[in-house]
Amino acid sequence: MVTTKILLTEDNAAMSHYQQNVYLGFVSCVPDRLLPRSIYRKYFIPTVPVDRTGTALQAPLSLRAVEAALLNAGFKRKDVSVIRPDYLESRMGENTEILALSSHDPLGLGPATTTWSTIFQGTPLNRIEFLSFMKRVQRLKEKFSFKVALGGSGAWQLMNNNLFTKLGIDYLFLGEVEYKAFDFFSSILNNELAEGSIVRGDIIRPEDIPPIRGSTNWGLVEVTRGCGRGCAYCAPTTSGKIRSIPIDTIVESAKVNLDAAWNKKKVVILHSDDFFRYGTQGSEYRIKPSTIYELFESLFNVGAKSITITHASLANIVADEPFIKEFSRYLYNHNISSFGCQPGLETGSTRLMSSMMAGKAKPFSPDEWSWVVKEAMRIFGENNWHVVATLIMGLPGEGREDIIDTFKLIGGLEKFKSLYIPLFFVPMSMTRLSDRTRFISTKMTKEHWLLLERCWKHNLTHIFGLYEMTDTPDPIFLHNFLKLSIESLKILMKWKRSSIINRSAKAPLVKNIDAKKLVDHCSASSSSSSSG
Fold this sequence. Notes:
Blueprint: E1 6-9, H1 12-15, H2 37-44, H3 61-73, E2 80-82, H4 88-91, E3 98-102, H5 111-120, H6 125-141, E4 147-151, H7 163-166, E5 171-174, H8 181-189, E6 197-200, E7 220-222, E8 224-225, E9 243-244, H9 247-258, E10 267-271, H10 289-301, E11 306-309, H11 314-319, H12 321-333, E12 339-341, E13 344-346, H13 350-356, H14 369-382, E14 385-393, H15 400-411, E15 418-424, H16 446-469, H17 476-496, H18 499-503, H19 515-531
Parallel strand pairs: 1-2, 1-3, 3-4, 4-5, 5-6, 7-10, 10-11, 12-14, 13-14, 14-15
Antiparallel strand pairs: 8-9
Helix pairs in contact: 9-10, 15-16, 16-17
């Protein structure tokens, strides 16, 4: 048995590579009422590859960041190991002193999970997996004397009433780990940190972020931190203005992924909350083409064949349309025939844009937001980009007219091959709206239900095409299961609308909502606003 002083891992759902498909990861947000745990475990969350001792050969980026921070801080390789969760019992021993966990959505309180679980009822699969895993940890703590520390973007969910201590977690870490890694872990090893402590990390300079030492799920590589657009509800903006990680560091991290045995297609996914501002400084909101091209050329030169990105701003797409057209041709010339990103559309309401997310529209004004969205979707479509855009329902102070504005905006985007994903507002820790009440399905008005229906009628037309575009090497059962599920939902939406939605607590019967009357009201409101 190989034991290690510091073990790093996550639960089964968080650790899985989801058939090497980043979008399938969202299935963890679904409640068990819709997807039985047995099917979820067998087909959706395959285990990552390991060596003979259970050391993970592929792992979430968050764990790789902690691993790199510890090794960079001076801890020895033999004392730090990222393991697959099913090897926890065999790797745990008297020599193990710290079990370090990371979690993105441990209790299923994130926006996507809150939306699915409160509409359809039931317990989110990610919560089930996390709590099941923590029971195993608690049993091991009765046998061994190790300490448990948990961090990651979902750590805030365990702060209330010190819930983390009740689950067997001794320390909670919030924020960026690199500058505090040595002191935090050393203080635990030396019994200098009181149990129940909540420790906050410091914002790191990008040049001090070390490259990762092992491959990540989907070949994910971090390229920026922070944002700086200032949206009141958003966590990344709390860590300051956007910071671009040096290209040399990104390339070193990418090479680890490109050399991995699982990555036969030489995939790299560049993670950023606002990718096309890579290389900018402070409050710059225009693209720097030379820097983007330098980054991509550097990655192609070390063997990358497929390079994609996570998040990008709609405003950048519109402000620099000539670059987007040129960049799309550049990708096509490198045999990348389709590209995509996940932008935040959020709302069609100028009022909410001005009061809560004015920076999202820069270099344009909040008053131009609806135009920006329409133009961005046109540009995406003309350049064969596949877009998954999020909306927020239930923002504090949201009124009927705000929802109607969003309803109208989405209605004008139906011709584009994109997905529009309505998510519920969640008051995340450290944001300006952290003290507000979260939005759940019982608070939905008839306008909310119609907006949700409009989005998902559109999505069901395009969602399987997006899934097939990702070229997932999935088992045939999963492929057919997803296709059948989508076709079934289409039938429900077309003939019955959604009987599940109709049965949700306090939801108005969708059949009793007069869509035509609402659309007529939208038109009247628009005419009135124009004449004023």
